[in-house]
């Protein structure tokens, strides 16, 4: 085994993990270093052991590409602040790599080249990380829920950065890379496409997003409230419920009329989390394709009250014409 | 409704707030799966009244479509006073009864916790969630000096309110509390997926629970270098939700009262 | 694990040191843009020799005070009337006669004088071509004399360039891509700050693109075109551009600043739009700057 960065350490008896394919061991398949114990973490009732981490060829590739992406970003960022370190930190939120117009390679580094290079590296890093995820799921004999969750998040990123721009024919549809650059994109995207609040997929995604936090509040609170009776040993409780889990179930049954079980609550959690990103992705994909103005779509489909006359000249200038029935619609109801 | 097989031994009267304070609780019973209690009666009453007013108001405004129906708050000239029913009074009444019902619901959850001898974490968390509603509809309008600052009660109506309020402060993404809250929401979604995957992914048949735990800890340590532990993850989720809600409250509370323009807020930089 | 961290920290520091050393990264502040457009047109150098070969024929070599020579824009004005105008200019720009004129020969065409002629005709044109028609369209009565030198100059010869110039091409909505829309959005902020309003003064944010029915929105379109006309037809190319802020200075409507001085009386307001109930959350004041 390679011992470049550390020696393999066995710190507790574990099963020997099989390599990815029989007979082809991962040359970087080592656990790194020694585990560290941070005792102050005991105050927060979390695990005190930091490390060890498994290296693995996929992980190394992914980290390398990620660091390279970061390097290109910082190179471009320093170019924007004319090399001044003070200004770099002053304008840290404002440095951004903007995408080029059109679909081809960027005309120059500054006009989109940096963006394309960084994004390409990030795409590689993301996919290698997915391979790492899969490898670990196999080694530890987990079912692939984590991989599907990760891939659905990748799906959303792909929709935003790649698929939607490709479908609409311009990289300029994608966000810039940078703090304020990304925020500007969110604002501009919504303004350009007729206010995304009225996109039903976006609404669903927000429902799942807020629902995720709500479920965390509910599930975290329930476990913490009954942890004195061992409800946090969730694997054991799923197999054989003790008083903690029973009380958790009864709490919700009496409060809202129905309840999950220690196992099915995690189904709720998983589906809400994945629902967030998948619904978002579909919302992004339908923008510019299903409709180019979500407000007008909403008025058409009766979900949004019409707040004023929809101006004919504005509509006719749009790439896709709005149907004339919308134009003939009466003016909004009088002020109350 | 059918009881769960173990439920019988837990369905006992006693331990509610009213009983401990006043010595008796006439509402200490269940209706189907639902526990009633004094607070359940309050909640049911407030919900019934609120929904009734809702229906009357929607009827007066005329648009019965579920998504389009909208009950607007009073206009600016009424300030913090009562408004006529059509001109915002309906909104005021519905908000009042809704708030009562939310608080009663939280107190009912407290009663259930006392009965089951659990910690009060769930009603505490729910109270934080209610605080977001109260902040938006009551506390901030009080600070701003008029009920017109509350949001419209309507599906797409309240979304338009959010859109307009965001642009009223120029660029709400630049509100640092908002940014922290958004970060909290996205982290919560990610951690939710991770925790759900961890539990669902390790549903195997090995009877020894230590094997499961090692497989969980072992996976996270190999994958990410750290495993927070089965107790720790629930702490993390709980406090992340707390953090997110507090940031959300602050983000709207400071807009209009302390800061009028979130772009200008960063101007010194 | 600690060894890894140590290697990373030391390596990172070394890299940073190399970067600083090689000049790619440096400590210090880049040049900030100066706030005022330094005027290349004045004051006149009184000691410069007078070169009559470049002057038009109407400029006399023997200048006599009390008479009018070389009048182009103020045609038909009597001598006292011309003096009255000149005094108004000095008050509006906060300068003395020597800023534009060579005091040995007031008829001599200095660079500053030539530019001033453009400015004077511009002021008259702004009123008749832009302000008055807009006012009539939206308030149903016409006014004249809204714009004077002082509206932009406010007692200073140079105009501060406070906000970015908003290209008139942004009127060509819809933007073609999200990136373009982002540029428009950022420029909209400068419009907001210049007028001291928030987005809701002109827009219904339910749909920026199709809901353009507010009078303030229509007026803004005309004003935008006016700014572009000022920048491209009247201003010399080497002068930094005029923006909304130049006249509005943070007010919804600039004060009625006529030639008589820095009179701050506000004109009748242009109606924006009523706070209709049908538009949830549309508040124009608290939160607006």
Features:
heterotrimer; A: 336 residues; mainly alpha; Photosynthetic Reaction Center, subunit M, domain 1; 2 domains; two-stranded antiparallel ribbon; 4 strands; 2% strand; globular; disordered N terminus; disordered C terminus; B: 269 residues; two-stranded antiparallel sheet; 9 helices; 64% helix; 3% strand
| Gyration radius of chain B, in Å | 23 Å
- CATH level-two architecture of the largest domain in chain A: Up-down Bundle
Strands in their spatial order, largest beta sheet of chain B: 1-2
According to CATH, what is the class of the largest domain in chain A?
Mainly Alpha
**Helix count of chain B, per DSSP?**
9
Per CATH, the class of the largest domain in chain B reads Mainly Alpha
* Strand and helix order of chain B: HEEHEHHEHHHHH
Describe this structure in words.
The complex is a heterotrimer of chains A (336), B (269) and C (289). Chain A is mostly helical and 336 residues long. The N and C termini of chain A lie far apart (78 Å). Chain A is 55% helix and 2% strand. Helices cover 64% and strands 3% of the residues of chain B. In chain B, a hairpin with a 2-residue loop joins strand 1 and strand 2 (34-35). The model of chain B has no long low-confidence stretch (mean pLDDT 90). Chain C has 289 residues and is an all-alpha fold. Helices cover 39% and strands 0% of the residues of chain C. Chain C contains seven helices and no strands. Chain C has helices at residues 2-22, 79-93, 111-139, 149-153, 178-195, 215-234, 244-248. Chain C is flat, with a radius of gyration of 26 Å. Mean pLDDT of chain C is 73; it is low at 25-37 and 256-272. Chains in contact: A-B, A-C, B-C. Chains A and B meet through strand 3, strand 4, helix 3, helix 4 and helix 5 of A and strand 2, helix 3, helix 4, helix 5 and helix 6 of B.
């Amino acid at each position: 085994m390679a011992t470049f960065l550390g020696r393999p350490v066995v710190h507790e008896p574990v099963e020997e993990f099989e390599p990815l394919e029989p007979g082809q061991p991962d040359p970087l398949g080592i656990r790194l270093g020694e585990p560290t114990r941070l005792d102050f973490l005991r105050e927060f009732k979390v695990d005190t052991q930091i490390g060890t981490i498994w290296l693995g060829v996929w992980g190394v590739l992914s980290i390398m590409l990620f660091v390279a992406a970061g390097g290109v970003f910082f190179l471009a960022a320093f170019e924007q602040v004319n090399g001044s370190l003070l200004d770099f930190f002053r304008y840290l939120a404002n440095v951004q790599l903007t995408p080029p117009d059109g679909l081809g390679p960027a005309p120059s580094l500054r006009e989109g080249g940096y963006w394309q290079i960084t994004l390409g590296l990030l795409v590689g890093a993301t996919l290698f990380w997915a391979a790492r995820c899969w490898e670990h799921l196999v080694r530890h004999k987990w079912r692939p829920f984590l991989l599907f969750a990760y891939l659905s998040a990748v799906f959303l990123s792909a929709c935003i950065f790649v698929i939607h721009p490709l479908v609409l024919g311009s990289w300029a549809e994608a966000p810039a890379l940078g703090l304020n650059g990304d925020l500007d994109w969110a604002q501009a995207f919504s303004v350009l496409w007729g206010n995304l609040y009225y996109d039903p997929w976006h609404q669903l995604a927000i429902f799942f997003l807020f629902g995720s936090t709500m479920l965390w509040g509910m599930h975290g609170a329930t476990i913490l409230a009954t942890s004195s009776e061992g409800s946090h040993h969730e694997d054991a409780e799923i197999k054989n419920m003790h008083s903690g889990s029973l009380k958790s179930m009864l709490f919700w049954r009496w409060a809202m009329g129905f309840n999950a079980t220690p196992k099915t609550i995690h189904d709720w959690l998983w589906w809400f989390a994945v629902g967030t990103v998948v619904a978002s992705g579909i919302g992004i994909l339908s923008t510019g394709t299903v409709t180019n103005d979500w407000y007008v779509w909403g008025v058409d489909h009766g979900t949004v009250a019409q707040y004023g006359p929809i101006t004919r000249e504005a509509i006719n200038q749009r790439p896709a014409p709005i149907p004339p029935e919308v134009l003939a619609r009466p003016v909004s109801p009088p002020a109350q | 409704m059918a009881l769960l097989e173990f439920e019988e031994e837990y369905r006992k009267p006693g331990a509610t707030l009213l009983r401990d304070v006043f010595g008796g609780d006439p509402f200490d019973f269940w209706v189907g799966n639902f526990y009633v209690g004094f607070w359940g009666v309050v909640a049911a009453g407030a919900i019934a009244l609120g929904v009734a007013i809702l229906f009357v108001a929607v009827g007066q405004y005329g648009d019965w479509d579920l998504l389009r129906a909208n009950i607007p708050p009073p206009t600016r000239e009424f300030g913090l006073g009562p408004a006529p029913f059509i001109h915002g009074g309906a909104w005021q009444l519905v908000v009042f009864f809704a708030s009562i019902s939310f608080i009663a619901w939280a107190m009912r959850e407290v009663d259930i916790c006392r009965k089951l001898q659990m910690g009060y974490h769930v009603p505490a968390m729910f109270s934080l969630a209610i605080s977001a509603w109260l902040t938006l509809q009551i506390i901030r309008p009080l600070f701003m000096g008029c009920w017109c600052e509350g949001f419209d009660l309507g599906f797409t109506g309240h979304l338009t309110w959010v859109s307009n309020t965001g642009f009223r402060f120029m660029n709400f993404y630049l509100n640092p509390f908002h940014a922290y809250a958004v970060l909290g929401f996205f982290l919560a979604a990610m951690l939710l997926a991770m925790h759900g995957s961890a539990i669902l992914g390790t549903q195997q048949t090995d009877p020894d629970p230590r094997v499961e735990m090692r497989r969980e800890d072992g996976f996270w340590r190999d994958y990410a270098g750290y495993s927070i532990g089965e107790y720790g993850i629930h702490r993390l989720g709980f406090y992340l939700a707390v953090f997110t809600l507090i940031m959300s409250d602050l983000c709207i509370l400071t807009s209009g009262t302390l800061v009028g323009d979130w772009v200008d807020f960063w101007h010194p930089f | 694990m600690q060894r890894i961290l140590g290697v990373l920290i030391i390596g990172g520091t070394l890299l940073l040191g190399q970067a600083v050393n090689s000049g790619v990264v440096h400590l210090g502040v880049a040049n900030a843009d100066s706030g005022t457009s330094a005027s290349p047109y004045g004051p006149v150098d009184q000691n410069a020799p007078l070169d009559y070969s470049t002057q038009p024929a109407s400029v006399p070599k023997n200048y006599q005070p009390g008479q009018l020579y070389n009048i182009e824009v103020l045609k038909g004005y009597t001598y006292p009337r011309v003096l009255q105008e000149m005094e108004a200019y000095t008050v509006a720009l906060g300068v003395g006669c020597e800023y534009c004129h060579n005091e040995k020969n007031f008829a001599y065409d200095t660079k500053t004088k030539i530019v001033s002629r453009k400015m004077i005709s511009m002021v008259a044109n702004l009123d008749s071509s832009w302000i008055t028609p807009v006012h009539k369209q939206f308030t149903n009565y016409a006014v004249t004399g809204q714009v004077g030198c002082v509206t932009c100059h406010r007692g200073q010869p140079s105009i501060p360039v406070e906000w970015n110039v908003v290209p008139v091409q942004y009127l060509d909505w819809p933007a073609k891509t999200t990136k373009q829309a982002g540029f428009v959005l950022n420029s909209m902020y400068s419009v907001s700050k210049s007028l001291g309003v928030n987005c809701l003064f002109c827009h219904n944010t339910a749909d920026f693109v199709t809901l353009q029915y507010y009078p303030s929105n229509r007026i803004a379109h005309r004003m935008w075109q006016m700014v572009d006309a000022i920048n491209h037809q009247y201003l010399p190319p080497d002068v930094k551009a005029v923006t909304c802020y130049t006249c509005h200075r943070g007010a919804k409507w600039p004060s009625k600043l006529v030639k008589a001085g820095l009179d701050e009386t506000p004109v009748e307001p242009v109606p924006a739009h009523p706070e209709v109930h049908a538009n949830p959350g549309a508040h124009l004041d608290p939160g607006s700057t």
